[in-house]
Amino acid sequence: MTTNFVEVNYQRNSSSVNINNMGMRDMQARAYENRHSQYLLLKSPPASGKSRALMFIALDKLKHQNLKKVIVAVPEKSIGGSFSNTKLTNGGFFEDWSVKPENNLCIDANDTSGSFKKFMASDEQVLVCTHATLRNSFKSLTASDFDNCLVSIDEFHHLSSNEDNILGGVLQSLMDESNAHIVAMTGSYFRGDAEPILPPEYETLFDKVTYNYYEQLNGYQHLKSLGIGYHFYQGSYLSEFVNDPENNRKSILDTDKKTILHIPNVNSIESTGNKYQEVGLIIDSIGEVIDGHTIDPVAYDAGVIFVKRESDEKIIKVADLVNDNAKERDKIQGYLRDINDVDDMDLIIALGTAKEGFDWSYCEHSLTIGYRGSLTEIIQIIGRCTRDSDNKTHAQFTNLIVNPDVTDTVIKDSVNNMLKAITCSLLMEQILEPRLSFRSPKSKENSDSDINKNEFDPEYNKEQADLKKKTESNKAGTVEIKGFSEPSTDRVRKIIQEDMTELQAAVVQDNVMQKAMVGSIDPEVANKVHLPRIIEEKFKGLGLTEQEIEEVRQHFIAEALIKPSRIEEKQGADGRNSRFIVMANTQFDLDNLSVDLIDTMNIYETAFDVLSKSVDGPILKAIKNEIDSQKITITKEEVLILFQERKVESFMAQHKRKPSMDSSDPMERRLAEAILFVEKMRQQHGR
Known about the structure:
By secondary structure, the chain is of the alpha/beta class.
């Protein structure tokens, strides 16, 4: 069974695809407003037009800001086509983007080794190359050679602050030893899965332009919904591609939908170890391979596989990008680059390709077997199906994940893969929905003063004034929380505006918070003890105070729990509308939310609910046990919360006994550990 963690609907208001009088989309115009920044970081999803945004900015820097050269670096040659010649004047811009063939080093015929240095010594203005070419060419140049140049790095998340990451070192050298301008672009929304792209002291120098997934998808013309789901299976993943009418089971692959299918890495637990055989079996599950020369000679000569579907003899066009034959793969990739009709392709089967920078706007379904290395990679794959196109109103990402085998003594890898899949869904949930703002009721006392001062007016109507206050507080997008600590410094405001998704990525990958995710640790302990620790570690370069950490913490919990899609409006007996929020499967009146209340909630409730519905009891127990086997020492702060909130006392009252360390329930074992901690403390103090 496939279960969607995330299902979001959009308004299709066309705001992200309409252009202004200079030919710029909404995101591009926002980026262009910051064209005078020396260091600019553009965070924007696939298909939002980052490459063209760079063209607008670069041409302005050449013509109006006295820069001499523009260098665009992309991760691989296939993406270089995004920066080919473009007629910008047709939309009202003052100049066209032009790259001479000899200065496009992503063309295979070009000599990258000498061409870069030749360009730097010439009067030529624009060059496109790969990250590797920039990296290697920098070895024979100095940082000062890049004075008065714009260096743009596409797919910026490829960099790392790790000293072994050469391109990261190149960027730091340019910032330290030249006056070069830098435009960095990424669609991944956070700096990386384990380490930052740049050290904090460098990152703070960048002005940031963020155009989020919600803004992009909500502003489309055709696409109105997106689902992110997981399909858990046992045995071989290939069995999920077999139609079984007798057992009312359909193949996970719907060939009526334009699909990119990523098979698992050969070294993963999902793989059979023979990628070519897997591709063959998937194609055989569709139907019979036929000679397509008479049907579409151009496609056939390019290597497209024609399959007659068994159910109705419909011809399905398949591209095999798993094939390692360089000549054949170049032909099919060339064909895919030139696709301009919805009927040109039905299914693309890939392994390490067709992810970032790959543009097939007709794609409706991204189907991925096994967890793919990192959150960044998954987000890039999801981006393959979220382009706007008139052939679809819904886009779907499905991750096929193997269930832990409870009879196997070694289940660590499969449990970890399942958890990574869940963390990805939690991260995507943050960026696919509109963001709410949160405030304390006290914060609007000043703004309400104009209402309150009318109390002495003879015509003052208290009922109307109260209704106006309620209407103001119930405006869409704003939620009041009693006791909420609003941002008190620019540092906190900047984190909330720019870095909450990156913080989410750090939180969902923390091994202690993963215990909370599957119900193995008390939510209040996770929220009050471990979340502040993660915030402090994540932003250690900023030196946040305890108060600032608390402000970020409260905002994080509120944003994780209170989603627009979970807010309902109901009419009461008095005829007034009230808003309610569903948290922990319980409905709460939004007017009565408090920090104390949300602190007791499991911010990963959605993940636990979906897991509980998707896997049976023994498997869920195996997942919990595997997570709990990664022992952590209980902290004094955690013990204090468990006792202050009477968690131990409640357990003993309910079960008429002490919690046991031998229990199969991880929460009971945690309570038992808390009791042992207190007993040891008493012994140490002679009590």
